[in-house]
Write a structure and sequence with these properties.
It comes from Actinomadura monticuli. By secondary structure, this protein is of the alpha+beta class. About 40% of the residues lie in helices and about 35% in strands.
Length: about 100
């Protein structure tokens, strides 16, 4: 298996006020969550921040990963995008580990 298949490019979709720094942090978090995973063929991350003070969790981070031929999805919503990314990292790592074990 070549390195490209093990570490595919992460495709991003963003909406709202998402900085380049936050996007980079999300990329690091997803790579960390998938660090032990094999056969990752695609990764798409969506980061979204809604500018509405009435929402309790306006920041959303979502990842859809093709892993072992199966689609794995994790997402988290939080008051701030960095919090959502942290929760996403934890949830994605759990899902990827569970799939590896099965």
């Amino acid at each position: 298996m070549n390195a490209t298949r093990e570490r595919p490019e992460i495709r991003f979709l963003t909406s709202g006020d998402v900085s380049a720094h936050e996007r980079s942090a999300a990329e690091r978090a997803v790579r960390e969550a998938l660090s032990g995973a094999r056969d990752v063929t695609s990764v798409q991350v969506t980061l979204s921040v809604v500018n509405d003070p009435s929402l309790p969790r306006p920041a959303l981070a979502q990842a859809v990963v093709e892993l072992h031929g199966r689609r794995v999805r994790a997402q988290a919503a939080a008051p701030r995008i960095d919090q959502a990314v942290g929760m996403l990292r934890e949830r994605l790592a759990i899902r990827a580990t569970s799939l590896q074990a099965s």
